[in-house]
Amino acid sequence: MSVLRLTPLAILISLSAYAFEFRLEAGGSYEHLSPHATYGSWKSGFLRLYHRPFSDFTYFLEGSVFSRKHEGDATLGVIGAYKDWSPWLYTYSSLSFGSNSPYLPKYRLDHEFNFKVGEQKNIVPSLGFTYIKYHDVHKDYIVYPGITYYGRDFVITYKHFFNRSDPGSVSSSSDLISLGIGQEGKSWTYLDISYGKQAYLATYLANPQEVRQNAFYVALSHRHWIRKDMGLFGSISYFKLSKGYEKYGLSAGLFKDF
Fold this sequence. Notes:
Layout: E1 22-34, H1 36-39, E2 41-54, E3 57-68, E4 72-86, E5 89-98, E6 105-115, E7 123-134, E8 139-150, E9 154-166, E10 170-183, E11 187-202, E12 209-227, E13 230-241, E14 246-257
Antiparallel strand pairs: 1-2, 1-14, 2-3, 3-4, 4-5, 5-6, 6-7, 7-8, 8-9, 9-10, 10-11, 11-12, 12-13, 13-14
């Protein structure tokens, strides 16, 4: 069961910088795994719609499709929202549902509290919770404290993830560091690094055993406005799972504001 998480959408774009009512994003990714004969290639595509009906509330809807050579095709639906509650608090919430597959959750719930402190409210301690129910007997419970600092033209984030996987109450942890440089309406470049453990009870074995593997992930992503209401985004990534596989990823897409 996966412990590592990518940078949440909430820290990719500052809520205070939202200037659109609607944003439509579409993109896809290709991932090459090694050993290739064993894992093949993974492909995915998504369509995401943001709507900001009020200055302090933004929600989004997302649909994704996945294709894996040895694990089949699957789909995922997500609904989420960002809400400013006060000058010092905003939250991020999302609910995901995946079709029956060995690699998508049956459902997943994420919720994150973000507290804005400091004279300029640009220091943001956070506390997040995740619950994941898979299509087999496995469940994940994740708690992740963190902190984000919004500078003039940069954002830096650190988060630590405590994970418990059931059955077996198998515990593990991981860390995420994210650095973004840029300006809303021009461009953003992000470097994300995540490292830690993936641990769970392998119930598919005749005698279930605990599986514990080191994992490392690094990604460089870029979002660029080609005009005021339109832009492109893309990323390259690398993932290594000890005693497992290596994965090289490439993604690209575009967005349009209305």
